Amino acid sequence: MTTAKLVPLTDYREYPVEEMRRRAGEFYAEMKRRRTVRDFSDRPVPREIIETGIRAAGTAPNGANMQPWHFVVVSDPAIKHRIREAAEAEEREFYSERAPQEWLEALAPLGTDEHKPFLESAPYLIAIFVETYGLLPDGRKVKHYYAHESVGIAAGILITALHHAGLATLTHTPSPMNFLNQILDRPANEKPFLLLVAGYPADGARVPVIRKKPLEEIATFL
After folding, report:
1. For 29-86, how does the pLDDT look when each residue is reduced to its tens digit (9 = 90+)?
2. What is the distance between the alpha carbons of residues 105 and 160, in angstroms, rounded to a whole number?
3. pLDDT for 105-141, tens place per residue?
4. Which long-range contacts (CB under 8 A, 24 or more apart) does 173-177 make?
5. Element (H, E) at 141
6. How far is Cα 92 from Cα 98, in angstroms, rounded to an integer?
């Protein structure tokens, strides 16, 4: 059995309670401004911003430190066009055949349909994959624990990091998304988790009127 190697915790910072309150409030205020955007500008974004956001995502807690994620960053117009074509084909079938009426009614206030121009207009698409298992150099498989939960946390950190940097994002999940493996040449042990669209909002971008549940509806303190 492998013996754990432990080192002192040196990077933790404790703050006075009043500073904790201020920092917590400021963070909430910043995140409250975050909105999902569907109208993106084609203005270029420095690649370094995306790289740093992914580094932040890579700090996410995860099962047994397997880090079961892979991020494919797409800026090539031809590849974005192929992704849009494949995604819209799935979305047309979803909206016309597969989606139950209840789901369509839930989506109606958001104004979504099968047309996804943002998949080409935004400067970056970030395809996030779950590594369902790892591969050793000799080809043996290594089980990844809590892979989907881990990648979900990492995706949330990436969205937060890009918002903090000043970008807008959109989570897009056409179903199924297997076309991403083919277009992006990803191996069989990787499964698409979501497609994150990132960039500046277009001039005059509009967002739906929505309500976020208050604290008493989303939390219970015992």
Report:
1. 999 999 999 999 999 999 999 999 999 999 999 999 999 999 999 999 999 999 999 9
2. 29
3. 878 777 777 889 999 999 999 999 999 999 888 888 9
4. 174/86, 174/87, 174/90, 174/91, 174/94, 175/90, 175/94, 176/90, 177/90
5. strand 141-143
6. 9
